[in-house]
Amino acid sequence: MLPELFSIGPVTIHSYGFMIALGVIIALSLGEHWAKKRELAEDGFVTTLGVISIVGGFIGAKILFWITILPDIIREPSIILQEVMNGFVVYGGLIGGLLTAYVYCRIKKVDYWKLFDLAVPLIALAQCFGRIGCFLAGCCYGQETDSVCGVAFSISDFAPNGIRLFPIQLVASGLNLLNFLFLAWLWKSNKLRKGMVGAAYVITYSAGRFVLEYFRGDLERGSVGVLSTSQFISIFTIVIGIILMILLRKKTER
């Protein structure tokens, strides 16, 4: 749709990277404001934690993508070097980012679960911007459709050009925005015990991702039987979210 925003000399600003950067900057700024308001961490901690988690998320998203194309890598190992900057799986990014954040919080002796609750609405907000970037670049595209809402790309390096596709990226962006508003309301209400807002995010995101996968048309996501890789993971993460919610509730009762 619009993979390149503009160029300054030899430097080209790509819409996908720009939207991700914009989402991260807004999320980190809002996170710093919320953390200061609740006195959860010292100034700058949320930003540092966010940057470290982004690095861990990048690595996790890349590793999970490589796993989805493992048969191709076994046949041609050079694919690993060819696909360093292309191909990521969001679930891998979430897992890598959350694990990195957990380790950093343990090192700094900061309550991870309180920051986890703070972070999940911001993650949903950043994902909202990221999916707009996907739409502009044409990646993570939807299935072919004849409906009036179909969109045909013309200069995408990812989506098949000239074919009407369901704009799944915009739908995902809208759902992430709604998830952000819902989780932010839960967090600001301060009615749930620590960790439960995070557990709610695991459930809502996983359930939404499971359904949205049926409308995806790109084939690089891998599959496990009749399910896509993300749908297969969603089943486990939904169960994990529910178990976490139950355990936290029981801990509160005790």
List the helices and strands and how they pair.
Blueprint: E1 4-8, E2 11-14, H1 15-38, H2 45-68, H3 70-75, H4 79-82, H5 90-108, H6 112-137, E3 151-152, E4 164-165, H7 168-189, H8 196-212, E5 223-224, E6 227-228, H9 229-253
Antiparallel strand pairs: 1-2, 3-4, 5-6
Helix pairs in contact: 1-2, 1-6, 2-5, 6-7, 6-8, 7-8, 8-9
Report what the structure shows.
This protein has 254 residues and is mainly alpha-helical. The protein has one domain. The protein is 66% helix and 7% strand. The protein has nine helices and six strands; from the N terminus they run ββααααααββααββα. The strands form three sheets. Strands 1-2 form a two-stranded antiparallel ribbon. Strands 3-4 form a two-stranded antiparallel ribbon. Strands 5-6 form a two-stranded antiparallel sheet. A hairpin with a 2-residue loop joins strand 5 and strand 6 (227-228). Helix 8 (196-212) runs antiparallel to helix 9 (229-253). The radius of gyration is 19 Å and the shape is globular. The protein starts with a strand and ends with a helix. The model has no long low-confidence stretch (mean pLDDT 90).
SS element count, helices: 9
User: Roughly how much helix do the residues carry, as a percent range?
Assistant: 55-70%
Helix/strand-derived category reads mainly alpha
Task: Output mean pLDDT.
Answer: 90
Residue ranges: pLDDT <50 for 5 or more in a row? Answer: none
Oligomerization state? single chain
Biggest sheet character: 2 strands, antiparallel
Rg value: 19 Å
* Total number of strands: 6
Shape: globular
* Binned strand content: 5-15%
How would you write the strand order of the largest sheet? Answer: 1-2
Tally of discrete structural domains:
1
Helix and strand string, N-terminal first?
Answer: EEHHHHHHEEHHEEH
Distance between the termini: 54 Å
